[in-house]
Fold this protein.
Amino acid sequence: MSDDAGAEPRGAGAADRLFETRRAKLEQIEASQGTAYPARPPRTHSASDAVARVDDEPPPDVDVAGRLVGLRRMGGTSFAQLRDGSGEIQLFLNQQSLGKVAYRHALEVLDVGDFVSAGGPLFRTRTEEPSVRVERLQVAAKALRPLPAKWHGLHDPEIRFRQRYLDILANDEIRRRFEARTAVVSALRRVLDDHEFLEVETPTLQPVYGGGAAEPFVTSYAALNRDYYLRIADELYLKRLLVAGYERVYEMCKNFRNEGIDSSHCPEFTMLECYQAFAHLGDMRELAQELAAAAAEAACGTTRVQFDDQVLDFTPPWPRLTYRDALLASAGVDLESDGSDSALHDAAKANDIPVDPAWPRPKLLDELMKTLVEPTLVQPTFLERYPTETAPLAKRCPDDPRYIERFEVFVNGMEMANAYTELNDPLEQRARMEEQASARYGEDATPVDEDFLLALEHGMPPAGGLGIGVDRLVMALAGVTNIREVILFPQLRDRS
C-alpha cells in the first residue's frame, strides 16, 4: 500500500505527481484484470450484513464491496478498512489466503480511496474485530486523486462547499446532516399526505413571475420567441388548482431569486407551499406547528432541539406577537396613532438604520422589522396581523381592514414560514396587484398576472395558504447559521 494513501497533496505540482503515480497503478490494474472499472464486481453482502453474520456457524463466505478508507501493511499481512453505505468492515489480507502474487500486486496498486470487491470467509481477529479473510480481490474503481486529510476531516469551507462529495466523505457529521434533511422532507410530505393534501407539480418556467417581491432569473424561450422567468414562487399556480376544484394541494419545489447571497439567502432554495380550501389563518397556524414538530422529531428525535447554548422548542403551541405590538416595543412607533412614513423614517434614524427616502412604505417597514424585531424572536414565534400594504395576496382582517390575516414564523431570528387567509375577491386582487405594480414600489414592483386574475374571476373558494422555507427549517434543526451548510451543492462565486 502506497505512502500517499489518504495524503492531502500540497500544491499543484504535488497533486499532479500523485495523479500520475495513481494513473500508472491504473495501468497495472488494467494489465492484470482487464479494466479498473468493471461493470459487475461481486457483492453478496453489505458491510453491516457481513458484520452481523460474523459469528454464524459455519462462518459464511461473503463478497463485500466499497471504498478503502484505511490501509495498514504489517510484513506478510495487511489490513484494510472498507466502507460502504451501511458501515465498515475490516479486510484481512495475507499471502496464504490471497496468494503470493496477488498479495504483492495488491500492495503495489491499492490506495486509500479505491473501490474494491473483496471475498472470503468471515472471522474475528485476535482483537475480536469482525473481518473478511480475503481470498478474492478485485479493484472496482481506481481513485486517481487522494481523499482529504488522511480521513481526519475536511475543514476548509471553500473546498467543503465546492467539493461537497469530499466533505461528506470526510465528515460523518455532514453525512448525517443531509440524511436528516431527507428525513425532514419525508416528514413534511407524510403530514400533508395524512391530511389528504394532493402533491402537484407546477411550472418552473413561467411567462409572468409572481407570488412574491423578488428579482427573477430571466431566460429566452427560443421556440416561443419570448422571455420566460424561473419561478420565484408557485403560489399563483397552486391557487389556480383551488379554482379547478382541488381542495387541498401542496408542492415541494425549487424557487429562484436573482438576488444576493448571504448566510440566510441562496438564489436557489426549496419551498413547501400548501393551500386548503375553506381554511383560514388559524388552520394554517395549527398546520405549521404540526409540520415543524414532525420535522424536528424526524431529524432530531425530539421537538426540543439544541442550538448552540440554547434549546429551540418546537412543541406546540408557539407564542404569538402582533406586528403592531412588536414595532411599538422595538421602535416606539404605533401604527394606529402615528404610523406615518415620517415617523418610520424618524425611528430608523434614531436606531441608526440606513434607509433610502425613496423607499416605498412596505420596504421601510420591512427594514425596521428586520433590524429591530426579527433578531429578538429566538423561539418559534408567530408574528401576526401585518399592515395591509405588506402583502397583496392576503385577506384583510374582518375587525380592522388596516391589517391582513397573515403570519410569519420566526426561529432563531430568521423567517421560516409565511401564511395567509388568501384573498379571493378578484376585484380587490386586481386593485392590489396594480398598486404593487405601480412605479412607486420601485424595485419591489411586480407585474400583474392577468391569467391568474382570469382564473380568480371564475371563483376561488375561501382558503388558507402556508409556505415553509425547507432550507431554513433544516438550518434550525441542524444547529447551523449558514444556509449553504444544508444545501448539498450551493451556488458559489467564481474562484477568481
Remarks:
- The chain has 16 helices and 20 strands.
